[in-house]
Design brief:
Helix content: 55-70%
Number of helices: 7
Protein name: DUF4383 domain-containing protein
Pfam families: DUF4383 (PF14325)
Distance between the termini: 50 Å
Structural class: mainly alpha
Keywords: Membrane, Transmembrane, Transmembrane helix
Strand content: under 5%
Organism: Streptomyces katrae
Number of strands: 2
Strand order of the largest sheet: 1-2
Radius of gyration: 23 Å
Shape: elongated
Oligomer: single chain
Length: about 180
């Protein structure tokens, strides 16, 4: 199964993907900018805290970059926002697991603490949820564009079965003659 562009551009799910990406992106951008405002050293691991999370200049830079990426995806909207949300969410969850094992070690160059790990897990799950909403599920409605794309033969059969017999012929006969 591949995530492709099955969703029409004006579909209501595009708003969910875009709003989710924008909100999470703004939160990350705010955190990164607060880090830059605090004049943090790039690789400092002295436990400087901003908004309850330990941070340094490098983590602030990464936060700003991911925030801008999510905001850019929100502006693009549609399937791109959904796909970016899913990928960024997976990266955040993976980062949480990696940094869980790096706490207290010299390799912890982003100065992650336990609060950062929890934030990374929660942000990752939130962003992934926004990206997967209405797109990944075992119970998608049959009128969902993703379901129709994954089950084309059954979608054609259901569309034909729901159309009254001879409906296409009647529509053609009832149209006014061209002048």
């Amino acid at each position: 199964m591949r995530l492709r562009d099955e969703l029409p551009l004006d579909h209501r799910l595009s708003r969910v993907y875009g709003i989710g990406a924008a909100l999470c992106g703004l939160l990350l951008l705010l955190f990164g900018c607060l880090g830059f405002a605090g004049s943090l050293s790039a690789f400092g691991t002295d436990g400087t805290r901003i908004a309850g999370l330990s941070t340094n200049g490098l983590l602030s830079l990464i936060s700003v970059l991911f925030g801008l990426l999510l905001i850019g995806a929100a502006m693009a909207g549609g399937n791109l926002a959904s796909t970016v949300n899913i990928i960024v969410g997976v990266l955040f969850v993976a980062s949480g697991f990696v940094h869980l094992f790096l706490i207290g070690k010299d390799a912890n160059i982003l100065d992650f603490g336990m609060s950062n790990v929890v934030f990374s897990f929660l942000m990752g799950l939130l962003v992934m949820t926004f990206g997967m909403y209405g797109r990944v599920s075992g119970g998608l409605d049959h009128d969902n564009p993703y379901w129709r794309r994954r089950h084309p033969e059954q979608a054609v059969r259901e569309a034909a079965a729901s159309r009254p017999r001879g409906a296409a012929v009647e529509v053609v006969r009832n149209q006014p003659a061209e002048r």
